[in-house]
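Hi V.,

Quick status before I head out on leave. The structure for the redesign project is tokenized and pasted below; the design run finished overnight.
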């Protein structure tokens, strides 16, 4: 999934710099096409991980911002992308206002889905009245507003989880291996493009060396059971480590993705994990897929719930 990725304001630009340095690549091409927008000259100068031509200074006065030049420059390039992602802090007035206006412009011009990577203060520090109003506005403006609470190490969580999601459906010509379930970009957006907010849960486990696994678990039935149990346990861990506390029973859609050593990702495990998510909400619409990484020493699971209507303090 190739995304036009725009960091807005200090928080958004710093996160986008991380994607510029460590974002997923397939066939030596970056999946995140990174740009930066700020009304701070110093930030534009310091965001060196983002190419100079992709950094834009804009004037922000009396709550108004002119994005004409920045948008014309971004969209005049010959770059293929399947959607846009705007990264910003909800409590940054400049970033919030700019992101709202840019979402409208991108929808009109590109006709592609527009995601938001929105970070919020920890819930015990948040101004709930103001935050609630802005979240409602974001849920109307963006096709997929994914919310991340600014906890310890949250930026690494953002990077790992969105790297995995972006890789779904991509074919690495060097690996020449497709997943058990091939999911393309339209499947991803159809799963998480629900009216409301989106939250994300992630889990990662290290694997023993493949020879050790074969020696310890010699019987196929035992090996199959271990793999299925691991996948279900990882989904449980993902559900307990969501990007922000919320009432997932209000979710309308879910996307389940596994990434890692292909032998450890099984259809039996995927179906068991789907049953686990359905226990949260029997009416939820679930899509699922995987991205194989042959020779990987770990396996990751990602669950995105969309259409959320209630955060929990």
């Amino acid at each position: 999934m190739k995304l036009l990725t725009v960091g807005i304001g200090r928080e958004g630009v710093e996160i986008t710099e991380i994607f510029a340095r460590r974002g997923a690549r397939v066939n030596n091409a970056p999946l995140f096409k990174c740009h930066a927008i700020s009304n701070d000259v110093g930030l534009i100068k310091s965001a060196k991980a983002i190419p100079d031509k992709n950094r834009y200074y804009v004037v922000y006065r009396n709550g108004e911002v002119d994005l004409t030049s920045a948008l014309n420059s971004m969209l005049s390039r010959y770059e293929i992308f399947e959607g846009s992602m705007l990264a910003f802090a909800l409590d940054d007035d400049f970033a919030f206002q700019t992101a709202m206006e840019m979402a409208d412009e991108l929808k009109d011009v590109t006709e592609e889905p527009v995601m938001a990577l929105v970070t919020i203060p920890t819930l015990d520090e948040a101004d709930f009245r103001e935050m609630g109003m802005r979240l409602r506005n974001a849920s109307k403006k963006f096709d997929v507003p994914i919310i991340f609470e600014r906890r310890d190490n949250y930026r690494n969580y953002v990077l790992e989880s969105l790297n995995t999601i972006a890789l779904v459906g991509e074919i690495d010509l060097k690996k020449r291996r497709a997943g058990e379930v091939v999911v393309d970009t339209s499947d991803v957006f159809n799963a998480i493009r629900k009216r409301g907010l989106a939250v994300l849960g992630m889990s990662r486990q290290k694997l023993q060396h493949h020879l050790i696994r074969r020696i310890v678990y010699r019987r196929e039935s035992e090996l199959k059971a271990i793999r299925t149990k691991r996948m279900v346990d990882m989904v449980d861990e993902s559900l307990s480590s969501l990007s922000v506390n919320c009432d997932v029973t209000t979710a309308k859609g879910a996307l389940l993705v596994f990434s890692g050593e292909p032998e450890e990702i099984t259809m039996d495990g995927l179906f068991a994990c789907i049953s686990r998510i359905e226990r949260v909400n029997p009416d939820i619409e679930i899509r699922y897929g995987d991205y194989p990484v042959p020779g990987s020493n770990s396996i990751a699971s990602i669950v995105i719930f969309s259409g959320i209507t209630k955060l929990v303090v």
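Above is the designed sequence. Residues 3-167 form a domain with the Rossmann fold fold (CATH 3.40.50.1440).

G. will cover questions while I'm gone.

Best,
W.
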